[in-house]
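Predicting holo structure, magnesium ion bound.
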Amino acid sequence: MEEYFQLILNGILLGGLYAAVGVGLSMMFGIVKQVNLAHGDLMILASYLCMVLITHLKFLNLWTAVILVVPIMFAVGFLLQKYIMNRVQGMGMEPPLIVAFGLSIIIQNGLMLIFSPDSQSLETPLAIMSLRVTDMFYIPAIYVIDFLTGIALIIFLHLFFKYSYLGWAIRAASDDENTAQLMGIDTRNIYAWAMGIAISSAAVSGILIGATKNFYPHTGPQYLIIAFGVTIIGGVGSMAGTLLGGLVLGLAQLLGGKIFGPGYQLLSGYIILLALLAVRPQGLLSKAGRAD
Amino acid sequence: MSNETILNIDNIKVYYGDLLAVRDISLSIKRGQIVSIIGANGAGKSTILKTISGLLSPRGGTIKFLGEDITGHKPFKTVAKGISMVPEGRHIFPRLTVRENLLIGAYTPKARHQSEKACKKIFSLFPILEERADQLGTNLSGGEQQMLAIGRALMSDPQLILFDEISLGLSPLIIKDIYQKIKDINNEGITVLLVEQDIKRSLKASEWTYVLQEGRVVLQGKPDSLTEVQIRKAYFGA
Ligand SMILES: Nc1ncnc2c1ncn2[C@@H]1O[C@H](COP(=O)(O)OP(=O)(O)O)[C@@H](O)[C@H]1O
Ligand SMILES: [Mg+2]
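Done. C-alpha cells:
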C-alpha cells in the first residue's frame, strides 16, 4: 500500500514538471496552429545556456541564472517567430513544420559540436536533499521544486491569459486573426510575443530538467514527445488541461512501470494517450467553448 | 469645421488575386456625415470597407484620412488613427466574455487608458451588455451580438466608424433599434459609413449614398434626390 502511495506521490510531482514541459507547445499549437518541433531542443538549449552561465559567471547559482536565461530565451522565441516563422505563416501546415524541424537539427548538432555528446547536469545542492514523508519514504527535494514551479508556471499563464491585454490579444488573434487586426492588434507582433512566452516556459522547464536529470545534445526530442502527450491528453491550448495532461502522463508512466516493469514506463504513458485519443480525441479539457 | 473632409478615396483598384473587385472608385465623406453604400451581393461593398480599414491593400489610387495618406496602412495603424470597423457577420471572439470582447476593442495604447470609462459608456448605450458582461460573447442572441460588435468598435474612440451589413439576419424591430443607436452615435460627432443590401433602411438613415454595381459607382447623391427608378436601375443593372 505504502509503495503505491509513494508512486502516486512521485507521479503527481512528475506530472507538474511535465505540465511545464508541455505548456509552451500547447500554447503555440492552440494559438498559431503551429507545431513547434524544436520545442524540446529549445528546452535543452536553455539547459546548456544555464550551465554555461553558471560555469562562467561565478556569482550566479542555478536559481539566479534563471533571471538571465528566461529573458534570453524569450528573445530567442520572439525573434524566431518574428523573422522566421511569421514568414512562412499562412502558407499551410508544412512550411513552419519544416523550418522547426531544421531548427531542431541545427540546435542538436550545434550543441554536439560545442559541448560534445557527453552527459551534463546542472549542479545544485538541492539535488542531494530530500524531504521525509515517512520513516521509510523520502522524496527528492528537487521533485518538489519541479512540481511547485510547474504549477506556478501554469497558474501564471492562466492569469496572464485571463487578465492582461496581451493575453486577451493573443486569444483574440488565435480565434479570428482578421477581426483581431480590426481591434488594432498587430497580429504578427502578437505571435512573436506568444512564441517568446512559450519559449520562456520551455526555458523554465529546461532548467528544471537540467537540475533533475542528465541531459545530452540529443535529449530534446524525448521531451518533445512528452510535450505532445501532455497537449493531446489535456486538450490544445487549455491551461487546466495542460496540468491535467501532465498529471495523467506522469502517473501513467510511474504506475505502468511498477505494474509491468521499469521498461514499460514510457510505453504505459503512450497507451493511456492512445486510449484517451480513442475515447476523447479533443482532449480531456479541450479549449472549445471554454473561457480560459 | 463641418465641411472638413474626413475620408477621401481617390480612384482605388482592389484585386483578389487576378479578380478586380473594386474598379477605380472614388468617394469622399465629410466630418459628421452618415454616408451609405448600397449594392447587390458581390458588388464590392465589403471590399471597400476592408480596404479603408487596411485588411486589404489597393493596387492603385490613394486613401486619405484627415488629409493624411493612409493607403495600404495595416489595420493596427488605421485603428490608432481613429477608424473603426464593425465587420459583416459580427465576428464576436468566441472564447472571450462580453466584457473582454469590449475591452479588447480598446487595445490601442491611447484607448486603453480610458477603457473602463469607455466600457461604462457602452453599457449605458446597450444596457443588455452589462447584464451579460461575464458570459461568453457567443451565448448572446444575434441582435445582442450585433450590439456587442458595435460597442466593441466604439471602444477605440473612433472618429469614423464603418458598418458592414449590420441588419443582416436581424428582426425588423431590432434593426430599427440599432439604427436609432447609429443616429445617437452620429450625434456624438462620429462620422458613419454604412454598407447595406437593405436599400430602404440605409437610404433613410444617410445623407449621401453611393450605389455600387460590379465594383463601380454607378449613381450617387442625396437619398431624397434620387428617384426609385434611378436607384433600381443602378442597383440591378439596366
Ligand atoms: N476573399 C475573396 N477572395 C476572392 N474573391 C473575393 C473575396 N472576397 C470577395 N471576393 C469577390 O469580390 C467581389 C466583391 O465582393 P464583396 O466586396 O464581398 O461584395 P459585397 O460586400 O458587396 O457583397 C465579389 O465578386 C466576390 O466574389
Ligand atoms: Mg459584403
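Chain A has one domain: 2-279.
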